[in-house]
Amino acid sequence: MTAFDNFFTRHGWYRDTSLPNRLLISRAVARSKKIVLFFPAFASTEATAPLSLLAVATPLLRSGYRVTIVDSTITPNFKQRVLDEVKDALCLGVSLVTGPMIRETVEISRAVKAWNKDFPVILGGWHPSLMPMQTLEADFVDVVVRGQGESTMLEVVQHLEDGASLQGISGVGFKRDGMIVFNPERPLQPLAELPPKAYELADFDAYERICGRRWAMYISSLACPFNCSYCTNAGVYGRQWNGLPPDQVVEETVDISTRYRLEMLWIVDDNFLVDIDRALKIAEGLVRTGVRFQWSIQATTNLTARLSLDELRMFRRAGLHQICQGVDSASPKILNLMNKTFQDFDSIYQSAERCVKAGIRPSFNIIFAYPGEGDPERRQTIDFIMDVCRRFPGAEFWTNIFTPYPGSPIMQHAQENGIEVPRTLEGWADYFPRYTVLPWLRGNAHRRVQVMRDYLRLAFDRVPIAKLDSGGMARLLQKSLSYPARWRLDHDFYALPFELSINRKLKRYVSVAKPTVDAKQLEPAVGANCP
Ligand code: B12
Ligand code: SF4
What distance in angstroms lies between residue 303's CA and the mean position of ligand 2's atoms? Predict the structure, then answer.
């Protein structure tokens, strides 16, 4: 999005397009009380109910609408299902982030439009929020909702039902008489003012069949006070952190986990530990209830390191089993470029040591090939990973190749450095960290980093959310491959990677429950947003 787009979509404006001159809300569309929400597959086995749609659903349900969620991950014939469901519905809402989810968004929206070109298709979530103009330019999209969707979607639906214009609904972009119209942004609502998520709509049995584990996402706070240069969060949620009161978190998490018999909750807050007193009260409250379920959080290393060993042990007693933390690089130069100066190496080591001692798994994220990272900086990071994993067995690292997202501070710089920015909504479908080839990391250099990442996966254990059962023998063989993998990483030697082909063969014996709609078997993306 250009600065121009940004300004005008923020304050509201009109733009003439060469779109066919038609009213968005055709009188031909049934005035139904039924809303269909679609969640496209996100190429991961970490299947659970989409929190975004559960959030959007509550105000609709409370206002008397019926909501049907079709999640492609648990619905093999999802296209037909959506087409059947929309027949007597008022509109279709789709939630998506930048990347592969766009593929099915386009497929479904086009199919719906082929059935009835006047049927309203509404897109919401991170990608439409960050690229509202380009998203709305797609001929199969009628409305984009920017930012929080609870109140906006309800208002959109009410206006559609009444056949009224969407003019005046903040946070909405839409088409009218061949024009793209953006209303002003909707001010952010603190989480405490938002209604609880409609977990009752989730088919947890179906998710469990795919993932092998019964779990859900929960959100207890919004935003993050930091501003890492690769992060999109400030672009949508600002930097004004706000959280739910501890009692509410305890009550809701206990209720959800018992009601739906959940084994685990992933608390998706950007930075759960911003208010340490609140976090401690949540843990104390959970200990007091005596209800046991596992939970994991995302937090920065500097905040994790502020917790003493005793406090971490208390968190463990409360069920906390994993803290995802974005280390991102072990090069001070790169951390500086990432605007991550709040993180120092002492705190990373302290966090790893205390978490492991307390029985909490420290999960660290790494980003390779950030602009400015050369071989020496990458080597520093590998050495650091090896050191932490050897000194603190149980610590784990998840790596990605840098992918600049629209709305992040680094995006402009990345473009100047030759990153090709897709020009259409569909163009963003292949924009994905696992495939990313950067202008400064192509060909052999790119292959080398991918092989190195494969060896890192082999060298040290990691625990994904999805249950992967490799069987005793395969596990033993995989374990034995970890030693040559470590040797290679220590010596920076990746030629003739025969261990990787053995491992790939072994993986054939691993029974992975996977979404039938996901054609590519990809590494599970746990802790995608570890700060
Ligand atoms: C959980 C999560 C995941 C899970 C998703 C699991 C699932 N079943 O949904 C998993 C692990 C799969 C995942 C994967 C990835 N993720 Co992710 N993930 C998140 C996380 C941490 C929480 C999302 C969430 O549920 N929030 C709570 C809900 C309530 O809020 P929400 O999603 O913002 O929804 C609200 C609004 O957006 C809006 N809305 C959303 N949908 C809709 C739909 C309609 C119709 C309407 C009206 C409104 C609306 O209303 C909602 C309520 O207010 C966010 C970070 C964050 N702070 O949100 C990153 C985040 C969404 N992920 C991100 C990324 C980059 C990824 C990955 C590419 C990471 C990777 N390394 O592979 C992959 C991509 C997946 C794919 N294949 O496309 C980015 C997205 C950036 C972008 N431009 O789109 C985020 C923002 C992290 C970040 N800061 O960079 N992720
Ligand atoms: S990457 Fe994490 S720590 Fe950095 S700004 Fe984003 S959410 Fe905050």
Answer: 12
d(CA 161, CA 163): 5
Residues with CB under 6 A from ligand 1: 42-44, 46, 48, 50-52, 55-56, 93-95, 97-101, 122, 124-127, 129-130, 145, 148-150, 153, 217, 219, 231-233, 268, 270, 400, 405, 433, 525, 528-529
CA 237 – CA 187 distance, rounded (Å): 10
Q: Is the pTM of this model over 0.90?
A: yes
**Strand-pair partners of 175:** 180
Distance CA 329, CA 230 (A): 13
Residue nearest to atom 2 of ligand 2 (CA): 531
Tell whether ligand 2 has an atom less than 6 A from the beta carbon of residue 227.
yes
Judged by its nearest atom, the ligand closest to the C-alpha of residue 236 is 1
18 backbone φψ class: left, alpha, beta (φ>0; ψ -120 to 50): alpha
The amino acid present at 59, given as its one-letter code, is P
pLDDT string in tens for the chain (531-residue length): 444 345 445 556 555 444 443 445 554 456 899 999 999 998 777 899 999 999 999 999 999 999 999 999 999 999 999 999 999 999 999 999 999 999 999 999 999 999 999 999 999 999 999 999 999 999 999 999 999 999 999 999 999 999 999 999 999 999 998 899 999 999 999 999 999 999 999 999 999 999 999 999 999 999 999 999 999 998 899 999 999 999 999 999 999 999 999 999 999 999 999 999 999 999 999 999 999 999 999 999 999 999 999 999 999 999 999 999 999 999 999 999 999 999 999 999 999 999 999 999 999 999 999 999 999 999 999 999 999 999 999 999 999 999 999 999 999 988 888 988 899 999 999 888 766 789 999 999 999 999 999 999 999 988 877 765 556 776 787 789 999 999 999 999 999 999 999 988 877 765 444 434 333 333 333 333 333
Rounded Cα distance between 1 and 8, Å, is: 11
Atom of ligand 1 nearest to the CA of 156: 47
